[in-house]
# Entry
Amino acid sequence: MSDSIVIDKKNPLPVYHQIKEHFKNKIKQGELKPLDCLPSEPKMSQICQVSPMTVRHAYTELESEGLIFREHGKGTFVAVLGGKGSERKRHVMTKSLGLIIPNIIEDVYPKIARGVEDATHNKDYSLIICNTDNDVEKQVEYLHRMAKQRVSGLIILPIIHESVAIEHYLQLQRDNIPFVFINRFIAGLETDYVISDNVLGAYCAVKHLIELGHRKIAYISDPGYVVAEQRLEGYKKALTENDISFDESLVRFAKLGEERPGHRYMKEFVESGNLPTALFAFNDRVAKEAYEALVETGLRVPDDVAIVGYDDSPIAVSLPVPLTTVAYPSYDTGKLAADIILSKMESNNKTIQQHVLSPELVVRKSCGAER
# Structure
């Protein structure tokens, strides 16, 4: 930012008013952005060759209009527009970004976090990671905490639960805290998101199993929220295109909070005599649970039951029979989500951005067609 300002001694407007209008115009034109630091009063008095009291008068009026705020020992900063009086100051954001995810050490989340961190580090932002453990109360607590800490923006993997209300997210919008959903979004809430094409991913997985000769293909899933339903849609699409009737008895959805659904439902298939020749699992964790159930009953993967998972998480290569899986573009998801947030903060871009990334099938031994 250029500190230059020309004071017109012949202008009938008082000098303090000219200084005030100078900064007011720069803020409105976007030359000064939220959190930009204004020159100190002594420095500004030297630039304008006026007394510090004159500069203080200009800054005081700008502050009273909610355009700037002062923090003792730190300086004078541009505030976030939108809101009134002291609320503008309260909602000014620190140069930090919050990432709210279920668990940093599981599934695709480490790569998502790495993508976010790489993008924020290059822009000199701090990253705050919050693990919800898929607990609704923890998620709400973190949303409130991040707002209170005045983070610049949030990347959120929202928990899907019947008790989750969109009011918490609407409050973020009212507080001018930008956020991006990843992996899934909440119906009825118009906001930015970065997700994967779940229909396409499931379709490719099941189509691959069909091409290997399978026609009795089961689907075991986590609870039936939007992502699970999208993957069911892709599963059905592959069956329909290959003249295979949909068999509801081969589809299982876990209950909320249920542990090891893959193990339970695969055991049920074995014990009922309704054993599929192949399984498409909602994710790699469910695939692993099903794999363990088959091994316990003396069955072999892929000889007796072929398995395809989803996510290409570390689980996929940790199994004795490496898992064929659909690769979720996790790193790209995190980086793109961070780029969206950063662009909104730095350019005040209010355009809604909704991205659907394409997954890829990674073929290993568990499907019987290792490349």
